[in-house]
Write a structure and sequence with these properties.
The structure is a homodimer of 262-residue chains. With 262 residues, chain A is mainly alpha-helical. Chain A has two domains: 1-10 and 45-109, Orthogonal Bundle (Arc Repressor Mutant, subunit A); 112-249, Four Helix Bundle (Hemerythrin (Met), subunit A), CATH 1.20.120. Helices cover 65% and strands 4% of the residues of chain A. Chain A has eleven helices and three strands; from the N terminus they run ααβααββααααααα. Chain A has a three-stranded antiparallel β-sheet with strand order 1-3-2. In chain A, a hairpin with a 3-residue loop joins strand 2 (97-100) and strand 3. Chain A is globular, with a radius of gyration of 20 Å. The structure holds a DNA duplex (30 and 30 nucleotides).
Chain lengths: 262, 262
DNA sequence: ATCTCGATGATTGTCAACAATGCAAGCTCT
DNA sequence: AGAGCTTGCATTGTTGACAATCATCGAGAT
């Protein structure tokens, strides 16, 4: 039961409890002839379910190890088990969910090795994206990015941690959009989410993220079309994220168990 | 029914190219009741089916646009439709198969834009991999790579085109193995296959690939641990692959129809 | 007290039947 | 003949039931 409450984050943005009627909620306060739902039933596509779970993980609403039961999910999204299963399968391929035979799905708990691999991969891809953005950035893009950073500052002022995490990841995806390479964006989306899992697993408490200032500096370099500087700042930014973690302690923890009982 | 013959290449498990693990970890030591097999037949896992189709596409045995009917596949692999469907879903996420509602699955026909994005992404990732390999390559690795290139030369001497394609892609995945980054290897596996599709769609006939010599030069640089040179050679190698294609002509073809009849 | 073993409920894995959809051939009417 | 409609077939989409498996918990033995 507690688990179902926890997962209720996934249901529609409105803070409603887990609705027992899976489909066709048709919220009352809306006008009768609203433009919604012209096909009778409000069907949720598999891609939507995928995206919902994916971003919930990215925003650290589902910590590593969280079990994702098929039946719960079926109720929450109002789809059949077969489709949930399909979504899990893709999420597993994306590396954000772990499937164990006859044990079902759970949010991936990344290993230290995996964490390091993710960082390396992300550095590589972000470098290319930044270089690309420096070449093709427009005034309109600059406005969008400034606006985004303003929202980040605002979220930090309000101490809205969930929003900060969301916006922080979104900034990088925005850059990927501007770079205009869908393949790289897909990879980066996956990496951002997986890195979010790493942070959730290995973060040292109390250290502020404060990444909006770093984002701001990267943007300034991009405005000047200084690709080298922007790349360098991006690398520093990503390294700073890593430096806030403690990968060694936790890795030695698992060694402890092995050595102590030998 | 001619289509079934064409797809029958999938049934024999002759060549195991990239045996990547598309799913999550499945720790072997659970082998107590591993092959229960109450049906009397050797069950193939979803991952196997995934890998088979994936590598068949990588080896250009299934050209772009090939329809993949659920029932055919069910017969070929001896699994139920539900599982085929799951596999298709993951292949679609990997970008090598395209799913259209109520139309089913077909091998992706990459657009020119997509092709360019794939090349950029691949260049990025291969650069990181090569740099990593230059640092950590061992004598044993060198032997493996030399051996592999020897097989490439042999395949070329025998004019075994299918084998050449297979080995050529495998060389890069071998480097990814040596680099030891599973995340990057997964990305590269996907990119190699998608690039294979691009080649199948846009290749200019008659131009030999002859990549084993380029592979050889890259290896020599790696033996000397000259990361810069190896990276440069790799970039040239990848550019050479692109230069053998004709992306512009085919893109203008589709424009032709629009302009001529206007 | 702790360990082993077995029963039980919860959860996942599999499948086959049924419904919905799209495609193509044939038919009708002008 | 040709445009539009209808019908039949091939294929995909969905669902629910059933089988297999795992986790939990308690009884009994050491």
């Amino acid at each position: 039961m507690a688990a179902l409450w926890r997962l209720s984050i996934l249901s529609n943005g409105a803070s409603e409890l887990n609705d027992m009627a899976p489909r066709s909620r048709s919220p009352g306060p809306r006008a009768a002839h609203d433009s919604v739902d012209h096909t009778g039933e409000n069907r949720v596509s598999d891609d939507e379910v995928f995206a919902r779970i994916h971003s919930a993980i990215a925003q650290q609403q589902l910590p590593p190890g969280t079990r994702l039961r098929e039946d719960e999910m079926r109720q929450i999204f109002g789809v059949s088990r077969a489709r949930i299963r399909n979504v899990f399968s893709r999420l597993a391929y994306a590396g954000v969910v772990t499937l164990e035979p006859n044990r079902g799905a759970s949010v991936t708990r990344p290993s230290v090795k995996e964490a390091r691999e993710i960082f390396v991969a992300r550095r590589t891809i972000e470098a290319t994206i930044v270089a690309e953005v420096a070449q093709r950035i427009t005034r309109k893009d600059v406005v969008r990015l400034r606006d985004h950073i303003a929202r980040e500052v605002d979220a930090e002022a309000r101490r809205d941690r969930a929003e900060m995490i969301r916006l922080s990841g979104e900034f990088h995806l925005l850059l990927a959009d501007i770079a205009g390479n869908a393949v790289l964006k897909k990879f980066l989306t996956e990496l951002v989410t997986r890195e979010s899992l790493v942070i959730a697993a290995y973060e040292t408490p109390g250290r502020p993220s404060c990444s909006n200032h770093e984002h701001s500096r990267i943007l300034e370099a991009l405005v000047l079309k200084d690709a080298d500087k922007a790349t360098m700042l991006m690398q520093e930014h990503l390294d700073a994220i890593v430096s806030r973690l403690d990968l060694d302690r936790n890795s030695s923890q698992s060694i402890d168990l092995a050595t102590i009982f030998s």
